[in-house]
Design a protein that fits this description.
single chain; alpha/beta; Rossmann fold; 7-stranded parallel β-sheet; 4-stranded parallel β-sheet; 14 strands
């Protein structure tokens, strides 16, 4: 991938210069380096991938993202904080790996799937696999714009069998989170118990070198907190059968952001500790069997999509 043309976009000259210094130590070529100023919008050049360090809430930055979306080009959000303790050579090394992994994954994920706008966490522990499979089996194949992040307490050796089990119960794409993934619609991502994940504001999910802290591997609380941060009201959590209280700390954050928190009905659980603990936080808006949850999910998301389209048409 040494022939890749990289476009750089940043809010400040300091950030832009920092990115340029890193790229000089990589095999990539900078085709354009721009600040997020309105007069630079039409200067966006052709590039294989754009690397950005911007405030995602900034209105001007959003104009650039809309423009890049129309160009159908890969965009990677680069966080300066992840390089703060490294020398320039190590920064360049990590930068190169990130670019290559994300670009490769973009090509793999480009088969008719677009980035998901809505992300739901499926959380489970003891007795949860059967419940989650019953749920996803009933989720309609044609629901779009949504991805599932499946957090199941497990050991690494369980992953292969669980991936095959998921695949047998859904028509959606299934991936294991051991490499960077663009979070695409109609996809289920199984979280690895071996390493934490980081999420970017442009919908890229990347495993880190950090192991999970605490008793739960993977941790529902850690994933939900990150989904809340990046997706806010466009997020949801469904807590299935499980032992312990994983998820109880962070599910209220989803509710307060305007998202949804549902649980498997306690009487239908093999082990009801996890959904019970979340229910006790008063953030749950729906409870049911896995089949009832799937039916409610289909109805809820069909209403949400219609509502969103109505809002969009009112602005035209």
């Amino acid at each position: 991938m040494s022939s890749l043309n990289i476009g750089l976009l940043a809010d400040s000259s300091i950030q832009l210069n920092n990115l340029q210094a890193i790229v000089k130590h990589t095999p990539f070529h900078v085709s354009s380096a721009l600040l997020t100023r309105p007069d630079n919008l039409e200067r966006l050049a052709e590039a294989d991938v754009w690397v950005v360090r911007v405030d995602m809430e900034d209105e001007c930055a959003q104009m650039f993202f809309d423009y890049l979306d129309n160009m159908n080009v890969t965009v990677i959000y680069d966080e300066a904080e992840s390089y703060s303790s490294l020398d320039i050579e190590e920064r360049a090394k990590r930068f190169s790996k990130k670019i290559e992994a994300c670009v490769s994954q973009t090509k793999e994920d480009s088969i008719g799937l677009k980035r998901a706008s809505y992300v739901w966490v499926l959380a489970a522990s003891a007795g949860g696999v059967e419940a989650v499979m019953a749920f996803i089996k009933q989720v309609p194949e044609d629901i779009g714009n949504i991805a599932f992040i499946y957090v199941q307490h497990m050991d690494e050796y369980m992953a292969d069998n669980l991936l095959k089990t998921i695949g047998r119960n859904t028509h959606w794409a299934v991936s294991y989170c051991t490499k960077p993934n663009i979070i695409c619609e109609k996809s289920i991502y199984l979280v690895s118990p071996s390493s934490e994940l980081e999420f970017s504001d442009i919908g890229v999910m990347t495993p880190t070198n950090t192991v999970w802290n605490g008793p739960y591997k993977p941790s529902v609380d850690h994933i939900v907190a990150k989904i809340w941060r990046h997706y806010g009201k466009n997020s949801g959590v469904i807590v299935f059968s499980g032992m312990g209280n994983d998820g109880a700390k962070t599910c209220p954050m989803i509710k307060h952001a305007g998202g949804q928190v549902w649980v498997q009905s306690l009487e239908s659980c093999a082990v009801d500790s996890m959904p019970r603990e979340v229910t006790n936080t008063d953030c749950v808006s729906f409870s049911g069997t896995p089949e009832q949850l799937a039916h409610h999910f289909a109805n809820y998301n069909s209403r949400s999509i219609v509502s969103s389209k109505d809002k969009e048409s009112s602005y035209e």
